[in-house]
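User: Could you go from structure to sequence for me? I need the amino acid at each position, not a summary. Structure tokens:
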């Protein structure tokens, strides 16, 4: 019921003409694992018709569900976006299920959104036996382990295969539990272990929650990012209770608060309020961000406290967060105009930076040799597309 309630909150405000409000809406829905595909299609249609909001949407749409109607919008966008945005359409197309890649393969190839080889590979996935799927999966894992640098495209293919193995009932909870237990004995997680975390989220076996939550104490950001994604899929109080001790801990709160933000129930909201008193300024603003992500009125008193006590943080732009929340909730505040001025100024500064870098971005994209994002850079390096984001948060997703 909590997920349904969140959908009801977002649905009437999903499309915003104000680019700042639209960007923040996208921030709040892009990691929501239970977004209806109708949202995707409304947003894509808006991106086709709104040049001002186009980039806000297509940079955030890739993790949302897609269907035939989505494909039609993506094909339109591929024809109208600037060259600096084309790779974002490619990224989203790459996240389509194999049956869509095969169905629209000729058109995707013609528009250079995928290669013919990738279409053939997706056909293989649809026709393969269980043994063939496992063999290919293990081949990918071995290649990931041997690679000198992180290969985002290969990582995505491996996740795609893991998803298919789960959907066909071949990947069981017992396998996940065993792999995680074995990796915990070592100094670091293997790619097989990291994939098992991803699979745990797909399986939705609540008995795995304590084991997953314990990994929030890991020093490996790669592992913890996968834990965040996996735990977000458990929309239950058990997940909240398992995560809460880590969310209160000054050493582990960053990803833990991210989990609480995405679990859309009252227990998660209460946990975020509870964590506020335990954490420093960076943690406090993340608690507020989490409540804003719920569109919860419980954020109001925390914002008032934060402003009154003059906290400063290095994590988030507080003025934009507060401006968005009060505007979207239809509430007034004495500082609302000031927050708006600061936010608009930052947005203009960012837009100017993008314009200055535009020629360099185009040159970077022209030099890419594949539409499949096979460029190899570190996950924490700046993305070569010029978006200003880390690689793992942009083309490396």
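Assistant: Here is the amino acid at each position, in order:
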């Amino acid at each position: 019921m909590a997920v349904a309630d969140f959908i009801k909150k977002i649905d009437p405000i999903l499309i915003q003409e104000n680019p700042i409000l639209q960007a923040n809406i996208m921030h709040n829905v892009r990691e929501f694992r239970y977004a209806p595909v109708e949202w995707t299609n409304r947003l894509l249609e808006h991106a086709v018709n709104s040049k001002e909001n186009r980039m806000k949407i297509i940079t955030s749409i890739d993790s949302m569900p897609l269907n035939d109607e989505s494909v039609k919008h993506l094909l339109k966008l591929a024809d109208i976006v600037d060259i600096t945005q084309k790779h974002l359409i490619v990224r989203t197309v790459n996240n389509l299920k194999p049956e869509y890649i095969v169905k629209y393969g000729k058109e995707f190839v013609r528009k250079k959104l995928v290669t013919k080889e990738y279409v053939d590979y997706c056909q293989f996935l649809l026709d393969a036996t269980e043994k063939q799927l496992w063999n290919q999966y293990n081949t990918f894992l071995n290649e990931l382990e041997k690679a000198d640098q992180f290969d985002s495209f290969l990582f995505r293919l491996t996740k795609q295969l893991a998803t298919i193995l789960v959907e066909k009932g071949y990947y069981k909870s017992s396998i996940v539990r065993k792999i995680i237990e074995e990796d915990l004995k070592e100094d670091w997680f293997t790619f097989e272990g990291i994939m098992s975390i991803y699979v745990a989220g797909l399986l939705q076996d609540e008995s795995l929650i304590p084991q997953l939550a314990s990994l929030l104490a890991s020093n490996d950001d790669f592992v913890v990012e996968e834990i965040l994604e996996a735990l977000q899929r458990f929309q239950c109080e058990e997940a909240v209770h398992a995560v809460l001790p880590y969310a209160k801990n000054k050493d582990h709160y960053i990803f833990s608060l991210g989990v609480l933000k995405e679990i859309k129930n009252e227990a998660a909201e209460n946990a975020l309020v509870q964590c506020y008193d335990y954490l420093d300024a960076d943690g406090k603003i993340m608690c507020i961000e989490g409540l804003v992500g719920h569109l919860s009125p419980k954020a109001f008193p925390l914002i008032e406290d934060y402003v009154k006590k003059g906290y400063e943080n290095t994590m988030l732009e507080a003025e934009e967060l507060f401006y968005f929340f009060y505007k979207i909730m239809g509430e007034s505040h004495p500082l609302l105009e000031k927050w708006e001025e600061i936010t608009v100024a930052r947005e203009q500064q960012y837009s100017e930076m993008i314009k200055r870098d535009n020629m360099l971005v185009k040159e970077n994209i022209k030099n890419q040799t594949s539409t499949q994002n096979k460029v190899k850079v570190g996950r924490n390096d700046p993305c070569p597309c010029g978006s200003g984001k880390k690689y793992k948060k942009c083309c490396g997703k």
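One structural detail worth keeping in mind: The two ends are 30 Å apart (CA to CA).
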